[in-house]
Amino acid sequence: MSQQMTPESVSGGTVPPKTKTKYKQTSPFIRWIKLLLRSKTGTVGFIIVFSVVIVGIFADQLAPYDVNEQNYANMLAPPSWTEDGTSAHILGTDNLGRDILSRIIYGTEISLLVGVFSVVVAGILGMGAGLMSGYYGGWVDTVTMRLVDAFLSIPNILFILVILAVLNPGIMTLIFAIGVTNWVIYARLIRGEVLSVKEREYVKAAKSIGTKNVTIIRKHILPNVFSTFIVISTLSVATTIILEASLSFLGMGVQPPNVSWGSMLSDGRDYLATNWWLATFPGLAITITVLGIIFLGDWLRDVLDPRSQGR
Q1: pLDDT for 221 beyond 60
Q2: Least enclosed by CB within 10 Å: which of 3, 74, 100, 235?
Q3: φ, ψ (nearest 5 deg) of residue 309
Q4: Is the pLDDT of residue 124 over 80?
């Protein structure tokens, strides 16, 4: 009896070959979409980040008014849904009659520009330092880690303010200042990952057959720490946007005529009691953008975590 039974005749038997083939042919893009839709926070974060990026790219087309267009006859106009509001300015105007919505849209472009490129600078410096320090060890590791300790002993914002005071404040200077102060986060975390990866058997095997160190780092070390790099970079964009807004609020970040959410907050702080919309809407823009990036970063951390594979 038992000899006549086949997998096809038993309920819960092996998966038909056709089904297996179909599963294997699923593209990586479709797989990532399914993983994203499976996470509510990841989906919300992606929608927010995607929307912010689109607004930043097409700011010129989406803004209803010129960013610095002043209208003294319509100063401090409230949002359109309030009693004295006007449909011409949905989020109201500031103390110079400039449209709040247009300035927030243009501020999106600046925040993304500073946030992304600062992270690129910090990531390149930190990734290189972490790879060299963790892989080679010895005096390279000692010097790099003592340099990291020195950077960490100085408050980030203080270090950036010194750089901005020496150089002329501006977008490029701000990107450089934030980048050269935030690389230590990458260096320390990537170093820890490299120390673990370089002890694995395939790395030791590559060394034993005489593979060059540069090749080992490029083919065996870097791919295994790149997921950590992506997660750090995603979350660092959020903190960089807050840092840029803080510096612009202090008058040391993005300079006029460029628009920053931080400078809009600074302009509206004297009107909080009477004209709440001047500071409220830029603050909401910062909060929503940062939350979206954090949600997306948390989802990436969960998906790229090796312990979560196969769930």
Answers
A1: yes
A2: 3
A3: -70, 140
A4: yes
Which residue from 287, 160, 305, 150 is spatially nearest to 231, judged by alpha carbons?
Answer: 305
| pTM of the predicted protein model | 0.83
232-247 confidence digits (pLDDT tens):
999 899 999 999 999 9
Q: What's the chain's Rg over C-alpha atoms?
A: 26
Helix, coil or strand: residue 93: strand
Superfamily of domain 39-308: MetI-like (1.10.3720.10)
Question: Computed from CA positions of residues 29, 41, 311, 228, in that sequence, does the dihedral angle turn out positive or negative?
Answer: positive
Q: What does each C-alpha distance from 65 to 101, 102, 273 come to in angstroms?
A: 9, 6, 26
For residue 194, what pLDDT is reported?
A: 93
For residues 264 and 103, the answer to whether their CB atoms sit within 8 Å is yes
Spatial distance between the Cα atoms of 300 and 228, rounded to a whole number of angstroms? 10
C-alpha dihedral over 68, 72, 73, 79, to 10 degrees? 50
User: Domain coordinates of the chain in residue numbers?
Assistant: 39-308
